């Protein structure tokens, strides 16, 4: 049975607390500026779908989406669903992998990006254009020279709370960061997934006595807390596909090991 600090949640902005300790993210140049090779896999699984101190290493990123463009995200904002949600899953460098970290306190950190339907996104097109090539379980396709950070919107402002994985065993080991700015894709791009890849989201869970904080004044006004560096800058170095997911796409990159 799952616990009392489960994810995703419906973020009620009126109840969010401002935390001046939360700073703007500073990602290493490795993830921001280097072209890497990305493998996309249809893994075919089924089922339910304060500030970060230390270094966290990327394991994988994946998407959740629905059968209609008004519902597909796992997190909600004031009861509003979004078309999709992208998760960048990281483990603390205190542990060797997501599998090792998933049942440890603050062992994982997940960056959540809400995806809305709007203009066409040329960066998403590089992924979506290959979806038909992985219409069967365990099929893969490789994308050369792909920048993960090219998918990111502005990351100045975000929500932070402590929660769980959204897939069984729902371990409550995750530092969640949900960014204010959305990623936009076109309706055509949003509808590019196969039937086996949709409705792979978990519904919001009760917040119970949990607290959601933000680094932006008045729950994402235009004024954000002045950004300083984290004690150790969040590290995005490796991308694997070890975390269990439902019908989601796993993406693996060929980042080199740290020297």
TrEMBL record:
Its EC number is 4.2.1.1. Keywords: Lyase, Metal-binding, Secreted, Zinc. It is found in: Secreted. It is an enzyme of class 4 (lyase). SMART domains: Carb_anhydrase. CDD domains: alpha_CA (cd00326). It comes from the Eukaryota. Residues 1-216 form the Alpha-carbonic anhydrase domain. GO terms for molecular function: carbonate dehydratase activity; zinc ion binding. It catalyses: hydrogencarbonate + H(+) = CO2 + H2O. Its cofactor is Zn(2+). GO terms for cellular component: extracellular region; plasma membrane. InterPro entries: CA_dom, CA_dom_sf, Carbonic_anhydrase_a-class, Carbonic_anhydrase_a-class_CS. Pfam families: Carb_anhydrase. Reversible hydration of carbon dioxide. Belongs to the alpha-carbonic anhydrase family. This is Carbonic anhydrase. It comes from Mytilus coruscus (Sea mussel). The lineage of its organism: Eukaryota, Metazoa, Spiralia, Lophotrochozoa, Mollusca.
């Amino acid at each position: 049975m799952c616990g009392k600090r489960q994810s995703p949640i419906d973020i009620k902005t009126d109840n969010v607390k401002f935390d001046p300790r939360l700073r703007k993210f500073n990602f290493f140049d490795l993830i921001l500026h280097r072209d890497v090779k990305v493998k996309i896999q249809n893994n075919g699984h089924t089922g339910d779908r304060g500030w970060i101190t230390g270094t966290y290493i990327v394991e994988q990123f994946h998407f959740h989406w629905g059968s209609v463009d008004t519902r597909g995200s796992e997190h909600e904002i004031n009861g509003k669903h979004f078309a999709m949600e992208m998760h960048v899953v990281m483990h603390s460098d205190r542990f060797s992998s997501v599998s090792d970290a998933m049942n440890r306190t603050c062992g994982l950190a997940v960056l959540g990006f809400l995806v809305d339907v709007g203009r066409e996104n040329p960066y998403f097109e590089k992924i979506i254009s290959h979806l038909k090539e992985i219409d069967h379980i365990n099929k893969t396709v490789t994308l050369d020279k792909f920048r993960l950070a090219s998918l990111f919107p502005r990351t100045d402002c975000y929500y932070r709370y402590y929660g769980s994985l959204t897939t069984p065993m729902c371990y409550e080991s995750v530092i969640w960061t949900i960014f204010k700015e959305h990623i936009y894709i076109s309706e055509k791009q949003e509808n590019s997934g196969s039937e086996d890849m949709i409705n792979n989201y978990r519904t919001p869970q009760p917040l119970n006595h949990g607290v959601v904080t933000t680094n932006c004044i008045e729950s994402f006004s235009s004024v954000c807390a002045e950004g300083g560096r984290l004690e150790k800058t969040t590290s995005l170095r490796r991308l694997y596909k070890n975390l269990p997911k439902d019908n989601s796409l796993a993406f693996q990159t060929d980042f080199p090991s740290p020297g």
